[in-house]
Amino acid sequence: MNDFTQQIQDIASRLLDNGQVDVFIAWHKGQQDFQVQPYFARSADEAQNIIFNDYSIHNLSNSLLKFRDSKEKIGIVVKGCDSRGIIRLLEDNQIQRERLYIVGICCPGMKDPLQAMRDELGFNHKPESTELAAKCNDCIQPNPVIYDELLGTEQSPRVQDRFARVKEIEAMSADERYQFFEETISRCIRCYACREVCVACDCRTCIFDEMRPQWVGRENNTTDNLMYHIVKASHMAGRCIECGECERVCPVNIPLMLLNQKVIKDVNELFGPYEAGMQYVEGQKPPFSMYEESDPDDFL
Amino acid sequence: MSVENNNEWNPKIIVIACNWCTYAAADLAGLNHYEYPADIRIIRVPCSGRMDPLFMLRAFNRGADGVLLSGCHPGDCHYGTGNYYNRRRQMMMKRLMQFVGLEPERYQTSWISGAEGSKFAETMHKLVEDVTALGPNRKLRDER
Asked: N- or C-end of chain B: fewer Cβ atoms within 10 A?
């Protein structure tokens, strides 16, 4: 891990010094070792603050959206899942490839900062057995799919049974399922952290902010929350890159990836093998912007 | 319309119909005097490509007991491709709605062309039967 830090610092200072990039996006240390934060270095001096450790879990590709209207050149460090986010943004024409210098890291799996905090403070009544963060346990793409420079050695996917949770819910009856979602989603406080952190959420005007017409109520009650999460999951269809950030940032522990993975599973089954953001082909369209005449329609 | 004061429950069903096919089929059903239940309310949209899944969610939210989205047969779209896009969306959306616990009978989709007045009447009969059997919908209903 330490050699990654050194390598990233070297690359960042090199790029910032010779003007290849205007800003370099990586992580820096927060108050504690496990409180790593996203960091935007703008000079070679600042690049010395960059750090990469077990807790560099944040998906940085989302922060590229802040630069979509500028002309600045950007250097960015990505792990496997983050690099799929970059492809998502390229597919949506949110950023130009020429403006990016991508440093890929073959990700050995990250640890959960929250769990580390609980351990540190002694509040961990239920020490979880897993070493890695929940989102890293079922990783299908630890290696970057798009990069200019690659660090580390290629890792093998850690996936065991991606859709285990989905299958578990599917086995329940309709009323049981509704009750389950009512219970979990009624916890939602509508902080929209899951939307803000999402790399597939790149609309300039979000439907949930729109007042006229107001499609989804903004009240914090079970049905409006359920509406919010169903609409969000359907907007993620064919776009979710399974970085698991929404679930990680959720302050009330809603299993948000459950809905997303259900949609991923269905899109996979219905419209041929498809994983969002696996490779960038110019002009390629996501599954809901195209159609095949032979698509299934067994709903009749 | 007279207001009847009976306590019998009748389902509220929203049919979102494509202007070029299903709406014409409803018209034809009327012309041919095919009877169908009066529990359905038809909303006309220009094409099945216009049928946002939000319409369905919003209908359930606002008190519908069942929703049917209906448009032209694949290949017959007035605008060429609208129903193909709709088909993909509906396939995904129906499965997602079932996943969150909505009964599949409440949210239906069908292809009815402008010449199928009798099929329209049949579909409405079937739909009302299905939804009546399930009873009033409480899922996704607005709490206000």
From this structure: N
